[in-house]
Amino acid sequence: MIKINKVLLLLGCMSLSACVSCSESSATGGGEDTDTPIEVPSGDVKMYVTTSNRMYDLAIQSVDFSDKDNMSPTTVRLDASMRYQTIDGFGAAITGATSYNLSLMPEEKRKEFLKDTFSPDKYGFSYVRVSIGCSDFSLSDYTCCDEKGIENFALTIEETKYVIPALKEILAINPALKIIASPWTCPKWMKVKDLQSKEPYDSWTGGQLNPDYYQDYATYFVKWLDAFKQAGVTVNAVTVQNEPLNRGNSASLYMGWEEQRDFVKTALGPALLQHFPDVKIYAFDHNYNYDNVADQVDYSLKIFTDAEAKKYFAGTAFHNYGGDRSELLDVQAKAPDKELIFTETSIGEWNQGRDLATALTRDMEEIALGTVNNWCKAVIVWNLMLDSDQGPHGGPGACATCYGAVDVDNTNYDTVTRNSHYYIIAHLASVVKPGAVRIGTSGYTENGISYAAFENTDGTYAFVLCNGKSEAKNVTVDDGTHHFTYEVPAKSVMSYRWKK
């Protein structure tokens, strides 16, 4: 049972002028334990609030609908007749590093953390990303077929001891969890230095896929999907290659858009259609700016000009390590029949990722709200959990300065500290459920204030608001039938959910 520091909570309640009830703040995110649990408040609108000074730490609050006429100039009006994308879910990557760290936690602490994170009744993370073979946050560099010959395919200890058990524990909490998988590299025996010479390339880093092995590599995907299915883990989607324009990752493979088009059209697409027809394929899976490679701009759009290739793709996946999220709008406008998902972003030393005062509202505006307001159906951040030394991570080329969505203290694996990426996903996933539709909004706008509105399949509305300003703001939300007002704290994120 989650407990909080009641003195801290009381001070937090006193600091707000709105009439609300304050409730829990998880001990895993800061604050001392007490012996008395706090009951969830009653009210028409349930809310979560997090402030960048951690005064509120996913605290549950509530407010009632107003029975007065709405004259507020800071009113956001919801318009359910204006409908955008359907939401698949929000979550984080279950890397080898994350799975390893989870395995070292005391069982009860791990169960509590995973239940808080993935239970639909709590923070409700609903989409995770895993690697096909190693990633740059694996315990070693490997694929599932390092001995030449596709008949030698087999899962490794990283999957069987760490990743699959973690996924199965999560699936027991949230059976509707969606999983997307991405390879960082093909087996080295399938690599060549370049497509002209086809000179063998014996390195985890860089190289290209030899077209002579297209069919074997498609079989590799099928065997991997089948092995996970046999182990009790159903994968819903794949990307063809993680960061296909990045030659320098510790495990990587360069794959230009023409290569991806040809591989999917001639091998991977037909193989998945035959063996796993429900598994979606997403193109690209890299940065908004196409890593500044001129002939790779509009990567997925170029693939989609080929009708045969296009039919196998559900849409495009993006990261944000370069460029601007406006690229999402451009791709959506040019390929409105294809989906957009956001599959990776990280925090680290370079962007003050552990400083919540800097990162919370910045990441909420840029990543969470910025992507869903630009048509993304899913938002997935990078490592769910790294240890307090930022690991474990791979060899040269792997990120040694990254933080996880949470950090676990590696002196005892008992204490978890939440970082900005945990909060931004929790604030979306706690109120916006899979199948929800983003809906229109109008009215109050101001620099430093961002928000998005949704209609859930159960007949509830969800509204997620970021106040990046240094002062509190009274904001009224009006759905056409009900309205309510709440003083949103400075530098905070709010999530609301209520019945229509």
Short description:
The chain has helices at 6-14, 96-104, 107-118, 157-173, 214-230, 257-275, 299-304, 307-310, 326-334, 356-372, 420-429, and strands spanning 21-22, 45-51, 59-63, 75-86, 89-93, 127-132, 178-183, 191-192, 208-209, 237-239, 280-287, 315-319, 339-344, 347-348, 376-383, 385-387, 402-403, 406-408, 416-418, 437-443, 449-455, 460-467, 473-478, 483-488, 492-499. By secondary structure, it is of the alpha/beta class.
What does this 3D model show about the protein?
Mean pLDDT is 92; it is low at 1-38. The strands form 5 sheets. This protein has a 10-stranded mixed β-sheet. The protein has an 8-stranded parallel β-sheet with strand order 5-15-13-12-11-10-7-6. A 3-stranded mixed β-sheet has the order 16-18-19. The chain is built from 11 helices and 25 strands. The protein is α/β, with parallel strands linked by helices and 500 residues long. 26% of the residues lie in helices and 26% in strands.
Q: Layout of helices and strands, plus pairs?
A:
Blueprint: H1 6-14, E1 21-22, E2 45-51, E3 59-63, E4 75-86, E5 89-93, H2 96-104, H3 107-118, E6 127-132, H4 157-173, E7 178-183, E8 191-192, E9 208-209, H5 214-230, E10 237-239, H6 257-275, E11 280-287, H7 299-304, H8 307-310, E12 315-319, H9 326-334, E13 339-344, E14 347-348, H10 356-372, E15 376-383, E16 385-387, E17 402-403, E18 406-408, E19 416-418, H11 420-429, E20 437-443, E21 449-455, E22 460-467, E23 473-478, E24 483-488, E25 492-499
Parallel strand pairs: 4-23, 5-15, 6-7, 7-10, 10-11, 11-12, 12-13, 13-15, 16-18
Antiparallel strand pairs: 1-3, 2-3, 2-25, 4-20, 8-9, 14-17, 18-19, 20-21, 21-22, 22-25, 23-24
